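ok so for the tutorial part 2 we go from a plain amino acid sequence to predicted structure tokens. step 1 is just haveing the sequence, like this:
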Amino acid sequence: MGSDIGANIQRLRKERGWSQARLGREVCRAAGAVGESVGRQEISRWETGKRKPREWLPFLAVALGVTAEVLCTPQKPTEPPLPTLADFLPDDDPLSPLGSREGRRIGMGQVDDLQKRVHGLRLADDVLAGGDLIRPALRELRSTVKLYREGSHAAEVGRQLLRQIGELAQIAGWIASDAGQHDEAERIYRLGISAARQAEDHTLAGNLAGSLAYQMSNTGREAEGLTLAQAALNDARAEAPPKARALYLDRVAWAHTKAGGPENGQQAMRALGEASEALSEDTDGTESPAYLYWVDAGELRVMESRVYTELHRPLRAVPLLREVLSGYDATHTREMALYLSWLAVALADANEPEEAAAVAERVINISADVASERTAERVRVVLARLRDFADVPEVASLLGGNAA
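step 2 — the prediction. this is what the tokens look like for a chain of 404 residues:
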């Protein structure tokens, strides 16, 4: 244990930019021994494991801003840092061209190839989670921005490249969000909005803004999420195809739901109704962007059931979720786990704890091998909801087996 503590002391000290002498002073200050200092050599002995801090341990923890337990816990080996846009994008305009455009000549052939790769990434996201896809997604985004900025191309090719950067940013942002990298996802979404606006693709810009609004609504920024979701709907303009308008309205409905309160609940139901009306306008002759391939009546029912669950209206939520899940593609593991998690909560709200526990167990088993922060968070939500029924044997067994 001594070597573990030592490694942690050294790591935390260096993160703060402190010398060993500075740490010695901070430890004494934490102990109330003003004007005194633990010697640098003593700190060195602790860091190398030659001596244990013993009675100094709680004061070390206070000085370093952690608990004593954290100081004593071995640290897992760190993975290589994820690539980020900040690695190469300038602070002003990340899409500004470089030099005199005398680099590699880019034609529509490269744009078509890129479009296929972007759509392939979307299809991969149907069956794989964010933790599995974030690295290739960010590498693709990096290389595409580099291609646009450093290459030479005609005006229309440049516009199409910007559109593909926007589409790539939408799926890469979604993947980063699913992996729990919310700050990175927001940077990616904002980059995509910039690219879509420069390409004058208002439908794509609205999709990106709506995706960012959805993340905000789910990460404690409900007011911002609602404002942005409404802006995405308003700014998309009348030319947005029916599927796009339905999706924007779905996100407005969810943003109202997460904002809470009776009035927002009513606004959420109104938006859901308008989303269904918009989708009903979609006919075989209506052309929608390829990235909206997944928007259909089934997806609207999913959102409707989630809104009902969040509004604690299980008698409406449970039948809808059962209908959706009865025909859902089991290869879409992450979505299956997410939809089941809503069903578990709705069943608990309907005072059916035994059945809720059975569904929750399915959620946990499915989520075990899914590298998604979304599913991990939903597991936590489900278990928290079921604690109200801890005296029910089936629930007690589930909670006991998932105490961590």
